[in-house]
Structures are given as C-alpha cells and as structure tokens.
Amino acid sequence: MKNIIFLGAPGSGKGTHTNMLVNQFGYITISTGDLLRNITAGNTELGQKIKNIMVSGELVSDEIMLELIEKELESIEGKPFILDGFPRNLAQAEALSTLLGKKNIDYQAIYLDVLENTCKERIVGRLVCKCGKPYNLFTPDLRPKKDGICDVCGSALIKRDDDNEESFKKRYEVFIKNTEPIKVYYEELGKLKIIDANQTETRTRNDIHEEIIGVIND
Ligand code: ADP
Ligand code: ZN
User: Fold this and answer.
1) pTM (two decimals)
2) Which of 39, 109, 163, 164 could share a disulfide with 5, CB 3.0–4.6 Å?
3) End-to-end Cα distance, the chain
4) From ligand 1's centre to the CA of 128, what distance in Å?
C-alpha cells in the first residue's frame, strides 16, 4: 500500500476519500487542517493567530506547518499514511521531499480534479465530525440520520468557521495559485496521478474510490 499525498481544492473530496481509505485499509491520516484546528481549540495567542488566518482563507506560515508535519511523520513511526492538506505550496512540497527522502519513504501524489462550483456547494453545505466522517446537507446520502449528530460516533456535528462562501472564494483562489506549481513538481518526478473526482449519474463516489485504489495498488 502506497503512502498517499492528496491534492485537491477545498471540497474536492480529499477528506471523504481519506475516510474511505482509512476504513478499508487502516491508513493513518495526517490532516494539517485538523492539526491546526486542534491548536486553535486551545485558546492561546498562537491559536487565535492561526484561527484568523484560517477564516481569512490564507495559508498558515511554512515555518509552523513544517514543524507540525515533521513531528507528525516522526510520531507515526513508518506506518502507511495519507497526507490531507499538505503540501499546499511549492516550498512545502520541496521541504516534504527532503523529509521523506531522509527517511527513505516513497509516496504517490493524487490530484482530485473537481469543478469549482461543485466544490463550493460541498463546502457551504458541509458538516464535520471529530471522528472524520464527513456530512453534507445538500447531498441526500450524506445527511446525518439524526439532525446534527454523527451516525458513526454520536458526537455533535460541527460547522467549520471557514465553511462559508466568502472563505471558500479566498481558499479556492489561494489553492489554484499555489497548486499549479506543485502539480508540475510531482509530474516531473513521475509521482502525479490526476483523477476526475466529479460525481455524475454514471460515476459514483465509489467508482472514484475504486480508481484511487487502482492507483495505490499499482
Ligand atoms: P480545506 O482543504 O477544506 O480548505 P483544510 O482543513 O485542509 O481545509 O485547511 C483549512 C485551513 O487551514 C486552510 O485554509 C489554511 O488556512 C490552513 N492550512 C491547512 N493546511 C495548511 C498547509 N499545509 N499550509 C498552510 N496552511 C494550511
Ligand atoms: Zn463521528
């Protein structure tokens, strides 16, 4: 099983597919967004600073992110992982290569390609749970059975502060600007696979999941 670096716009389905792969194969998730939200929950000065950046849709500094990611990679002790939300710019991609290279860790970068409008709808309707199960109020099969409660673990569902149209717009813009160079970078290394992750009547979430499995078993 290959380690995975998921690339994709906010709302492209990184979290959803990560959740499916974790349930099926037992990957460890490293989600930088979740790591940051843990810090912002602490009500410290740093937490407040990070929270403001996240709501604005801008990126948290590479310095903070690299320290976080280095610590996480250390703590998983070589178990198979999925990176969700990192790298987010070329400098992070290069620093990650150095980190993984030192540890002799191989990976596959997978870009989930989804139309902007679809991403926007998913983000605006999204609810999240701390167990990782994603929900969406606009998608019938992703609504919770009981309003506001997680089907899996019973916790209260959360609406993220940055899951509104305004934050999405900025996040999407930041994403497009920074991700093109990352795609080129992994393409040149021969590590990039682009997957059409738009769902249609003939292409379900599960079809996309199967395609991802094909890539990591390759
Ligand atoms: P999404 O992919 O839905 O936009 P995330 O939970 O991955 O959401 O990230 C939320 C916010 O956390 C980002 O908008 C950004 O401010 C910050 N963030 C997450 N990962 C990184 C990263 N690798 N570098 C810089 N900032 C990050
Ligand atoms: Zn839950």
Assistant:
1) 0.93
2) 109
3) 9
4) 15
Read off the tokens for 55: 């709501």
Q: What angle do CA 211, 212, 214 make, to 5 degrees?
A: 65
Q: Find tokens 């390759």 and name the residue.
A: 218
Determine the Cα–Cα distance for residues 173 and 84; give it in Å rounded to an integer: 18
Catalytic-role residue among 37, 51, 133, 171: 171
Q: Whose CA is nearest to atom 4 of ligand 1?
A: 10
Sign of CA dihedral 63, 67, 70, 73: negative
Distances (CA, A) of 137 to 106, 122, 188: 37, 9, 39
When the pLDDT of each residue in the chain is averaged and rounded to a whole number, the result is: 95
Q: What pLDDT, on the 0 to 100 scale, is given for residue 29?
A: 96
